[in-house]
């Protein structure tokens, strides 16, 4: 059996920098036509000039004759100005501005400390129609890590959607039933990406029988009832839910240690794993909308014209891949996948 889809895009991706880009971008470029590239480098990508230079580094790391377009983002800090927003919009290469609450996740120390101070900048983004991409977790130490997303909805997202009713927002990597409900209640301006790992697993995969660091990402995997809500949303055919892998490679030694960092690497088999999820939910006919149509529609970009084909054919995911001078352990390492990209 085979399925053919309009070529998909990845609306949330980490490509890292320097030599590491080359190790991972080929996996994405084989499957996806475009990807929204996250700006959480060290130092973060805070200006259009920095994003243009980063884009050049990505393009020169691409394999020959690959046809892949990186869509760039800026990292919002307390110091972002309205002038920079206008420059970003004019450039046509910046497709969104990413809000990380300071300290929420990997390389987020330069993130936003008080969103209210950025209201003038958000005003400009709303006027320019430049989407706000949100890592929606509070960082207060007194909020339980499993509740950080739903608390962010009440404390920050509700006020934001009330105060900026025309600002397009992407609620990134949603992980809870509350997030699904919030996106549905705000359809039109709020879209959401859903990752492979949050559809495939719940927190048991990470914690039962031993701590498995390769399932640790942020927002953290939640309980099974939330996983079911995400599967229902992704396969619903509703256009506000679309594909974003959040593929986030880290060197093996940085994950397999006493304080392992957050991030799952999924670029090696992303569309194949989504196909598996949709097939299991009896919704393969809705994969194309989720993977290839709703994202570009939300961002106001043209849909891709070419296609990819997946064959129902088992293959084994390698234990690890090269990652710069290191190795990265992919999600599902050593396991098999039922769908294969026809090359
Ligand atoms: O698990 C994660 N890894 N979540 C994020 O928000 C950042 C990402 C990374 O950059 O490694
Ligand atoms: Zn991310």
From TrEMBL:
Record's GO cellular component terms: cytosol
Q: Which Gene Ontology terms describe the biological processes this protein takes part in?
A: 'de novo' pyrimidine nucleobase biosynthetic process; 'de novo' UMP biosynthetic process
Q: State the reactions this protein catalyses.
A: (S)-dihydroorotate + H2O = N-carbamoyl-L-aspartate + H(+)
Locate the residues binding substrate. 14-16, 40, 135, 218, 250, 262
Pfam families assigned to the protein according to its UniProt record, in alphabetical order: Amidohydro_1
Alphabetical list of InterPro entries matching this protein = Amidohydro-rel (IPR006680), DHOdimr (IPR004721), Dihydroorotase_CS (IPR002195), Metal_Hydrolase (IPR032466)
Which sequence positions carry the modification called N6-carboxylysine? 98
List ligand-binding residues for Zn(2+) 1: 12, 14, 98, 246
Which family is this sequence assigned to? Belongs to the metallo-dependent hydrolases superfamily. DHOase family. Class II DHOase subfamily.
Briefly, what is this protein's role? Catalyzes the reversible cyclization of carbamoyl aspartate to dihydroorotate.
The protein in question is named Dihydroorotase
What species is given as this protein's source?
Answer: Candidatus Thiodiazotropha endolucinida
Q: Gene name, please? A: pyrC_1
């Amino acid at each position: 059996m085979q399925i053919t889809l309009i070529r998909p895009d990845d609306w949330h991706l980490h490509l890292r920098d320097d030599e590491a880009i080359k190790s991972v971008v080929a996996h994405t470029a084989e499957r996806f036509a475009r990807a929204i590239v996250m700006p959480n480098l060290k130092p973060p990508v805070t200006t259009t000039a920095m994003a243009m230079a980063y884009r050049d580094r990505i393009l020169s790391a691409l394999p020959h004759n690959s046809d892949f377009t990186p869509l760039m983002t800026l990292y919002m800090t307390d110091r972002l100005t309205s002038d920079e927003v206008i420059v970003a919009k004019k450039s046509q290469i910046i497709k969104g501005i990413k809000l990380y609450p300071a300290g929420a996740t990997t390389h987020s120390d330069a993130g936003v400390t008080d969103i209210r101070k950025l209201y003038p900048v958000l005003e400009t983004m709303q006027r320019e129609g430049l989407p706000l991409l949100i890592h929606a977790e509070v960082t207060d130490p007194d909020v339980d890590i499993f509740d950080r997303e739903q608390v962010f909805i009440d404390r920050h997202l509700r006020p934001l959607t009330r105060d900026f009713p025309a600002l397009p927002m992407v609620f990134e990597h949603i992980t809870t039933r509350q997030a699904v409900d919030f996106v549905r209640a705000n359809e039109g301006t709020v879209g959401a990406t859903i990752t492979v790992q949050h559809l495939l697993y719940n927190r048991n995969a990470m914690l039962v029988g031993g701590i498995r660091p390769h399932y640790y990402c942020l927002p953290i995997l939640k309980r099974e009832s939330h996983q079911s809500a995400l599967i229902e949303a992704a396969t619903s055919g509703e256009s506000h839910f679309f594909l974003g892998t959040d593929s986030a490679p880290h060197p093996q030694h940085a994950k397999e240690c006493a304080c392992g960092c957050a991030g799952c690497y999924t670029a090696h088999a992303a569309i194949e794993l989504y196909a598996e999820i949709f097939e299991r939910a009896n919704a393969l006919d809705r994969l194309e909308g989720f993977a290839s149509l709703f994202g570009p529609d939300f961002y106001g970009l043209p849909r891709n014209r070419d296609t990819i084909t997946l064959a129902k054919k088992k293959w084994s995911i390698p234990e690890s891949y090269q990652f710069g001078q290191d190795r990265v352990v992919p999600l599902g390492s050593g396991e098999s996948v039922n769908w294969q990209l026809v090359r």
